[in-house]
Write a structure and sequence with these properties.
single chain; mainly alpha; 4 helices
Length: about 80
């Protein structure tokens, strides 16, 4: 799946999330697509999804967390 399709999927998921679940959905989407977005920067992620640059830190955290979750058995393809 190409980056633009991933960005579009994330934008859609965030747009459909209830207002009080936006951050939770954002984190879930970041974990779900972390492997596909290994080669991009946090800045590129925020620009691609249309988030404020300050969310770049969250992207970096979730990408790092994903490796630990996968080591514990999480299958990101099931998210």
């Amino acid at each position: 799946m190409n980056e633009q399709k991933i960005f579009d999927n994330i934008k859609h998921a965030l747009g459909e999330a209830p207002r009080n679940q936006f951050t939770t959905e954002m984190h879930l989407q970041m974990i779900k697509y972390a492997d596909n977005l290994k080669s991009i920067t946090a800045k590129e992620f925020c620009e691609g999804v249309g988030l404020k640059p300050s969310f770049g830190t969250e992207f970096s955290k979730m990408r790092n967390l994903t490796q630990r979750l996968k080591a514990a058995g999480l299958n990101t393809n099931q998210l």
